[in-house]
Amino acid sequence: MKPENNHGIKRVLRATGFSMKGLKAAWIHEAAFRQELMLAIIMLPIALIVDVTTIEKLLLIFTLFIVLIVELLNSAIEAVVDRIGDEIHTLSGQAKDIASAAVFMSLALCGITWTVVLVSRYL
User: Which residues bind substrate (predicted)?
Assistant: First the structure.
């Protein structure tokens, strides 16, 4: 049964709690999320330190967050597909592959953005 709707600050607090629970689950159960988060923790200070424009700093930081967001969505899709059943089904595999491709694309975007910004600045 769906819980009763809360309004105002109570809803925001409950939603924040659910979000923290989701981040904790991703950290515990998803190695890729842990790796990408650790990489983002290392790269975030670099993005803040490098001598580039404010817009370029934002691009560097945004792409790090995009990778994490897409990885969370990928993990959610995988969990739902796995929950549905253990039997191998073409659509289940397709859903997982497409979600994985989204992660790949976000990583490519991040890598290209960082390369273009840093190479244009320092080479």
Answer: 11, 32-36, 71, 100
